[in-house]
Amino acid sequence: MTGTDSGDPMVAVTDRGLAYGDGLFETVLVRDGVPLLWNEHCARLSRGAGRLGFEAPAREWLDALPGQAPQGEHVLKIMLTRGSGGRGYRPPIPAEPRCYWQFIPFKPMPERWEKGVSVRLCRLRLARQPALAGLKHLNRLENVLARQEWQDDAIAEGILLNDRDQPIEATAMNLAWFDQGQWWTPELTECGVEGTLRRVLIDKGLLSIAKTEDAPLPRFLNSQSACLFNSVQGLWPIVECFDSGHQHVPGQWPIDGPVRRLQDGAHTLMGYQFNFPTS
Questions:
Q1: Does pTM top 0.90 for this prediction?
Q2: Domains and CATH numbers, the chain
Q3: Which PANTHER family match (predicted)?
């Protein structure tokens, strides 16, 4: 495994991650040198490398990274590529993967935890590709184009739909809504990123997976409550939704007990201080 940190500016122009997006990345919240949801991040990186057909770094090698963080809260960004070699799109066998990493100072947004956020529906539609579904791969042009659709800072996130107008995720966060007495999050068998916080919340029984065919856009828009979450920002309640023409759509949600209870569960996992009422 070849590795380089943010202090080394050299990236090979032949690196397949740069040339083709042939690789994966993780963004890990690190607090005073301790990584949050670390087992889940390492497991996702390993699963992704296996799907792409090359080796992930050894766990012992990865375990040495978070301890290099300065004190305080940082995001550890790990980028794993197939390395260089091969001819055109044909990958080298065996591959010689490279791993790049850096620590980025981070401050959460507690006002968004407390007051919630406004979102919009993106015009861009996610392509269905089961071979890549769930992976946090380096080719994120869909997300870039979707995020380019708005510049209004009052809109915190954009909701991404597939080509059948079914909600899948936000540009950088997972999505959930509350109805029928439980929290639902879209299945990600055709597209979307399987977030580490999402996986833990499902494993703990706090989230249920909604089959794509059972989750049309009106089900999300007419739900009782809704939220966004990831393993860095925590959980943001959604309070209103606009369409791509900046008009309100039916989705307007209170910050109610179900939101606060799920938020409390998520933030406990992440070590965030959370003092908002849960009832």
A1: yes
A2: 2-105 (3.30.470.10), 110-270 (3.20.10.10)
A3: AMINO-ACID AMINOTRANSFERASE, P-LOOP CONTAINING NUCLEOSIDE TRIPHOSPHATE HYDROLASE PROTEIN
